[in-house]
Structures are given as structure tokens and as C-alpha cells.
Amino acid sequence: MQKVIRASWQAFVEVGTALAEVRDRRLYRDRHCSFENYCRDELGFSRPYAYNLIGSAEVSKQMSSIEDIALKPVNELQCRELISIPADKRKEAWKKVVNDAGDQPITAKLVHQAVAEFKSKRKKSKAKPATKSEPSNIKAALKLVDEIEELAESADKKLKAKLVQLREVIKNIS
User: Fold this and answer.
1) How far apart are CA 71 and CA 89, in angstroms?
2) Of 73, 86, 157, 169, which residue is most buried, by most CB within 10 angstroms?
3) Which of 53-62, 99-108, 147-156 has the lowest mean pLDDT?
């Protein structure tokens, strides 16, 4: 019985890895126009679910390779919760999960709560203050684009000059 349970645990990793290969190598193209159609018609599930399996498999592989974590995620739901945070934060988040769980079983809900803390930290630290110059530069860029559209059928010199101006405006935005 234990072999069946362990094999089932590994199944999501194998399925996610296989789906990634089908997607990346476009192996669905012989009978389907899109990965989404392949998932729906051949496998009976949605593209988002396929991406969850792919992401969970990637997280599982990443976490299983970390040596200083004794207790690893053991199912797809635990791994799925870790997809949404950067790979370099997953180890820290998982350690928090294990610590918070104590002697209790680790549930997807517990992982979700820990991940939520890492998401909010990430959003706060990456916030970029708006500058007053950006809106005027964007307006200038849009004005140049309008002018380029008008010049599309006129002389090449005028068009090239406007493209040079556009490049300079866009450079000043960032």
C-alpha cells in the first residue's frame, strides 16, 4: 500500500514534467491548434490546471534538491501554493510553513497562509514611486506615434526623423 501512495505522490511530478515537454516542444500541434485545446480534448482538463501541474512539478523538483530542508512538500496542493512566489523565496517560505505547523500535519491552507506573507513582502519591497515626468513623456511618445502614422505614406526622410525622435522620447521614459 505504501508503494501505491508514494507512486501517486510522484505522479503529479511526472504528469507536470510531461505536460511541460508537450507544451515546450509543441507536441500537441499534429492534432490540435493550441495547448489549451490539447488539454481539453485529450486530457479532459483546463489549460490553467495543466499549468498548475507544470508549476507544481517544477516546485517539487526545486524543493527536493534543497538539502537543508528535512521535511519536503509531499503533494501537488502544497507545491501549487508555492508557485506564486519567486523561486528564491520558496525555501524560506517552506521553512516558515514547517515551523508554523509544529507537530500538526502540513496542509495546503497552512502553506497558503505562509505564502501570503511572502507575497505582501514582495509587493511592498518592489513598489516603484511614480515620477511626474513619465506621463508627459508617454503623451509625447503617443503624439509621435500619431504623427508617424500620418507620415506612413510620405517621404522616407520625414519618417526616419520622427522615428529618431520617438526613440529619444522612449529612452527618456525609463
Assistant:
1) 17
2) 73
3) 147-156
Three-class SS state of 137:
helix
Cell of 73: 512538500
Report the pLDDT averaged over residues 102-110.
88
Q: Which position has the grid cell 517552506? A: 94
Full-model pTM: 0.63
Q: For the chain, give every domain's residue range.
A: 2-126, 133-173
* Mean pLDDT for the stretch of residues 2-11: 69
Torsion sign, CA atoms 56, 61, 62, 67: positive
* Look-up of cell digits 522616407: 156
Q: Closest by alpha carbon to 160, among 173, 147, 172? A: 147
Amino acid at 59: V
**Dihedral sign from CA coordinates of 74, 78, 82, 84:** positive
Amino acid at residue number 88 = D
